[in-house]
Design a protein that fits this description.
By secondary structure, the chain is mainly beta. It has three helices and 17 strands. The longest helix is centred in the middle third of the chain and has 11 residues. Pfam families: DUF5128. This is 6-bladed beta-propeller protein.
Length: 249
């Protein structure tokens, strides 16, 4: 990351439409329908005294949020932080338990807060050296949220938990209409195609799965006969595959 960046706009054909220079250091961004842009720099003191920035359509900073009040030796984490929710844009940070909505007045409104119990990253982590801190949370275990999806009926996320060399990935599903919630542990050998959800369509979750994985694990995949038949001619050089799975009630 440098001290500035450019936002490029392209047509679907690949033709460059325009570029906007931004005097910010950021890892991820989201453009609102109003052309307002939100930029997130993660835990990076080089980016300045804040880690979340709002600009107008020309890239001029309008507002700064989330002061950088952590240890100055923290390391930035380049992960997706913005997600499209239920007529809203969701925001999350690595190692945090809250999910926010980008709200009116260029502010954040907390929508959900998770309790990871013993694998919640403790407050003292933010005051520690980056390497010592990670060693500490790796020993105690820590959980993190990613791949957030929010509709009128469902909230869905990937919950990844790590403790030293042991890693676990779970698909968290909350049915808002019944208020039932549960987690499905993802077996990377048999259900690795559930690792990367990309959306919700009605009562189905949509995933993207990569051909080399599907081919090398074809004997272990827990798929319907119809799905297996559609993948029968797949090779490692094939394009990624979109998989639909009904959300259990």
């Amino acid at each position: 990351m440098g001290n500035s960046l450019q936002v490029h706009t392209f047509k679907k054909s690949g033709e460059l439409v325009g570029s906007i220079p931004i005097d910010l250091n950021a890892t991820t961004f989201y453009i609102m329908p109003s052309d307002e842009m939100w930029f997130y720099s993660s835990y990076n003191m080089v980016a300045g005294d804040h880690r979340l920035f709002v600009t107008d359509g020309d890239g001029k900073v309008k507002k700064k949020l989330l002061p950088n009040d952590f240890n100055d030796k923290m390391l930035p984490i380049g992960e997706q932080s913005f997600f499209e929710g239920n007529e809203a844009v969701l925001f999350r940070e690595s190692f945090k338990t809250s999910v926010y909505e980008l709200s009116k007045g260029d502010s954040l409104r907390e929508l959900y807060r998770f309790n990871f119990g013993a694998t919640t990253v403790p407050e003292k982590y933010w005051e520690m050296d980056a390497f010592a801190g990670f060693e500490m949370i790796s020993k105690q275990g820590f959980s993190d949220l990613s791949h957030l999806f929010d509709t009128e009926k469902y909230f869905i996320a990937i919950v990844a938990t790590q403790k030293e060399r042991d890693r676990k990935k779970e698909l968290y599903i909350w049915n808002k209409s019944t208020n039932k919630e549960f987690k499905i542990e993802i077996d990377e050998d048999e259900q690795g195609y559930f690792s990367t959800p990309i959306g919700i369509e009605g009562n189905q979750l949509v995933f993207i799965a990569y051909s080399p994985y599907l081919v090398s694990n074809s004997e272990n995949l827990n798929l319907s006969d119809e799905a297996k038949a559609s993948l029968s001619n797949l090779t490692e050089d094939s394009n990624p595959v979109i998989i639909y799975a009904r959300i259990p009630e």
